[in-house]
């Protein structure tokens, strides 16, 4: 049963890695573990001295791996002013030189640094503390020597010294690590290009006015910044001018956005107007064009009007008028069956008279 469940879990992991998880399923995350220690690295003068005799390990033994109770003790020194990622990367390389490494970092004091290299931004206590909080450091040596001696190496039981392979010219020597290289105790590391303490200081000097104005704005006084009264007023004026310029830029940006929106709206209106005009022209042509609906309607109306006002066509042969039948002879009723008083008149005179009355 356990083998079956483990097989399913392995299959599930493969599906998760291949991106074959189904929708709605949650990916189980591995709990994050802190790789570095919770406390800063101790200082060498606070660590209990070892009681076993000091016997160096060879390069072959160190690369092969030493027992847990006998780590390879690697020493790296420096100024570590304004501790940055370039320093941390160099210490990471020193820590990873061998499978089992105890990294000791020596930090030079202010007196040695100011004498042999120059003024520092951070004081020695700040530099000691910064190095002790690096996750790769196991032990910090305060007031480290500028040149390593055999007594110092034996005191701290150092097996190898880690540093970049570029010859370090200082203190009247072409390379302060030459005797370490000759003794076979040198382990080279690589520098991180593009970042160094000198580069950071160069940026600050180059943008000096910007940083002074920023600190004045944050509440630092001109005396704390070692700025004269006139320069202080100048920086305040520049700050005010920059604010005005920024407001002008903001107004310009807003006006550009407004003009852009108006142009977009105008383009939309023109497109809609063109679409509506095409539709209107199409409807107009459909109604009033040569073959439009209006022409057909007029033709139909004209035909109906002509049909309504024109008389019906006469037939080819008109019917013959019937001859009027002769009117009946008028007779007075009281003269019926009696002799007419006009019987004494001549016949032709009496007949002519009545016939005229009938025609009338």
What would you call the shape? elongated
Sheet-strand content, in percent, reads 5-15%
Largest sheet: 5 strands, parallel
Task: Give the distance, in angstroms, between the N- and C-terminal Cα atoms.
Answer: 144 Å
In DSSP terms, counting alpha (H) and pi (I) runs of 4 or more, how many helices?
12
Report the radius of gyration as a whole number of Å.
62 Å
Strand order of the largest sheet: 3-2-1-4-5
The total strand number stands at 5
Low-confidence stretches: 1-24, 334-360
The topology string of helices and strands comes to HHEHEHHEHEHEHHHHH
Instruction: Please give the share of residues in helix.
Output: 40-55%
Category from helices, strands and their pairing: alpha/beta
Query: Whole-number average pLDDT?
Result: 79
């Amino acid at each position: 049963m356990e083998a079956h469940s483990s097989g399913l879990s392995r299959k599930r992991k493969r599906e998760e890695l291949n991106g074959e998880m189904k929708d709605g399923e949650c990916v189980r995350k591995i709990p994050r573990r802190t790789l570095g220690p919770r406390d800063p690295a101790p200082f060498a003068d606070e660590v209990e001295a070892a009681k076993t005799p000091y016997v160096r390990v060879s390069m072959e033994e160190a690369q092969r791996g030493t027992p847990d109770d006998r780590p390879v003790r690697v020493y790296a020194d420096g100024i570590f002013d304004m501790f940055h990622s370039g320093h941390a990367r160099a210490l990471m390389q020193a820590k990873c030189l061998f499978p089992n490494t105890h990294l000791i970092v020596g930090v030079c004091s202010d007196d040695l640094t100011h004498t042999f290299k120059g003024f520092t931004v951070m004081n020695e206590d700040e530099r000691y503390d910064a190095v002790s909080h690096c996750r790769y450091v196991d032990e910090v040596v305060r007031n480290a020597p500028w040149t390593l001696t055999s007594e110092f190496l034996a005191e701290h039981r150092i097996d190898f010294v880690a540093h970049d392979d570029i010859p370090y010219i200082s203190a009247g020597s072409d390379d302060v690590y030459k005797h370490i290289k000759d003794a076979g105790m040198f382990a080279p590391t690589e520098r991180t290009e593009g970042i160094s303490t000198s580069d950071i200081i160069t940026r600050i000097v180059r943008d000096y006015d910007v940083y002074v104005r920023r600190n004045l704005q944050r509440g630092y006084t001109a005396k704390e910044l070692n700025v004269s009264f006139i320069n202080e007023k100048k920086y305040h004026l520049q700050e005010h001018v920059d604010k005005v310029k920024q407001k002008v830029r903001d107004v310009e940006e807003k006006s550009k956005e407004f003009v852009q929106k108006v142009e977009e709206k105008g383009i939309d209106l023109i497109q809609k107007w063109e679409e509506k005009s095409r539709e209107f022209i199409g409807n107009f042509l459909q109604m009033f064009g040569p073959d439009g609906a209006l022409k057909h309607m007029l033709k139909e109306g004209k035909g109906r009007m002509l049909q309504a006002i024109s008389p019906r066509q006469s037939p080819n042969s008109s019917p013959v008028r019937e001859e009027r039948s002769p009117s009946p002879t008028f007779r007075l009723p009281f003269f019926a069956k009696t002799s007419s008083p006009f019987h004494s008149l001549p016949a032709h005179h009496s007949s002519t008279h009545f016939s005229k009355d009938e025609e009338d």
